[in-house]
TrEMBL record:
The lineage of its organism: Bacteria, Bacillati, Bacillota, Clostridia, Neomoorellales. This is Bacterial type II secretion system protein F domain protein. GO terms for cellular component: plasma membrane. PANTHER family: INTEGRAL MEMBRANE PROTEIN-RELATED, PILUS ASSEMBLE PROTEIN. The keyword Zinc does not apply.
Amino acid sequence: MPLVIAVVVFWLFFLLTVMLYQQLTHTSPRKSRRISEVLGSQPVPTVRERELKAPFYQRAIKPILGMWSQKLIKMLPAEKEAELGRRINYANLQSKIAPRELLVIKYLAGGLAAVLGALVGTSLVQQVQSIFILSLLGLLAGWYGPDFYLQVKGRQRQQAIEKSLPDVLDLLTVSVEAGLGFDGALLKVVEKSKGPLAEEFGLTLQEIRMGKPRAEALRDLSGRTGVHDLASFTGAVILADQLGLSIGNVLRLQAEQIRLKRRQRAEELAMKAPVKMLIPMVFFIFPAIFVVLLGPAVIQITKYFIK
């Protein structure tokens, strides 16, 4: 009997402990529902989890570039920094890299490429002049490589903006003539269109909503892209807004002019095509034709002279 009593007391004490623990840690459904409404169904990530979810470039490389850029700040003039910033804006990389960080990348790329060229020259030719030439070529490639990448990427983005600008202006014109304001028409373009021009219009709308004047936001739009047609469009809209002219008529005229310019550029490219085709024709197509046409005659002539 003492053993049975001890076992019963032990289990009763265990059950009471479990019930008390559940009562203390249990959250009522009402509280759980309220917490889910406030915080959401997903748990709130910690600071470390948010840092680990960031890309490797943001976590590891960008802090190092920022540290070195602070040391190289005196070596970068203000004019050069503004030029690098303009190239970065044209390529739409302003959120990923700063002009000073780009300068650090150019130094590192030039140094690494020069060392790589020296190693290649040492392993292949083993001559001082060849090693120096390969190192110099590697230095130039590493220094001008980032600039070339920014130029290519920025030019591709500008061409995409130029290509989509007439259609976007048509949509703006239709929206304004339907009764929307200019800001509402821009919002409609952002909702219905895709591409770099729609992204730039969305950023311009955000700046206007944050309190920036419309004229200043449109000037910043043309400055970020570097597209001449877009600059003329923003200038016309700013002038019409200042003079109180009809935005719909201005947009229609701008769309017609930009379509005319695009047609003229296409005709210009078509006129240049025959001239560009001469190089592959002269060096690749004509020699093959000459071999096919004159080859048998040359063979016959050589046989005649050999006899």
